[in-house]
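Propose amino acids for all 159 sites.
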């Protein structure tokens, strides 16, 4: 049974980090690209704005299983989310997700090439350590004492 605190940790870390690498599969090869994630905990979904002309849309249509990899390397916090993706043309959701960074790609939320990418998570794993400096100190102490360092929390979570 999954601990609700672990599920909350997944959502909290993903929301805090905000950006992730979306990995899709195409012709047997894995491909990742950075995406701005909109975590919707109550819907148990991650949303992204994407372009109808993007290759990821075609890849997801062929193989909907994806992975989202969130990383805060300075804070030593990481989240990997596996799930099923789908693309839709929900114009109301596009307007909800519209933000200033989207203007780098499209003029307005009314651009007909914008689509919504929804990822419904099924499984996740997180690593939450105390931070870079503390981690280095713990690794050095462990090396001197021939023990394994306590690098923080790592949990696998059914979503």
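Proposal:
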């Amino acid at each position: 049974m999954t601990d609700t605190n672990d599920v909350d940790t997944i959502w909290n870390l993903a929301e805090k980090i905000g950006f992730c690498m979306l990995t899709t599969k195409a012709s047997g090869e894995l491909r990742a690209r950075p995406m701005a994630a909109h975590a919707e905990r109550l819907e148990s979904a991650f949303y992204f704005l994407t372009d109808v002309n993007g290759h990821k849309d075609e890849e997801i249509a062929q193989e909907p299983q994806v992975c989202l990899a969130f990383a805060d390397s300075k804070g030593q916090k990481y989240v990997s989310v596996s799930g099923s993706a789908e693309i839709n043309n929900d114009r109301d959701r596009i307007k909800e997700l519209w933000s200033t960074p989207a203007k780098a790609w499209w003029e307005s939320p009314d651009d007909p090439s914008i689509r919504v990418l929804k990822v419904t998570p099924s499984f996740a794993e997180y690593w939450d350590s105390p931070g870079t400096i503390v981690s280095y100190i713990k690794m050095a102490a462990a090396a001197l004492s021939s023990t394994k360092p306590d690098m923080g929390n790592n949990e696998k979570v059914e979503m």
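The chain has one domain: 4-158. The helical segments are 4-17, 55-62, 91-97, 132-145.
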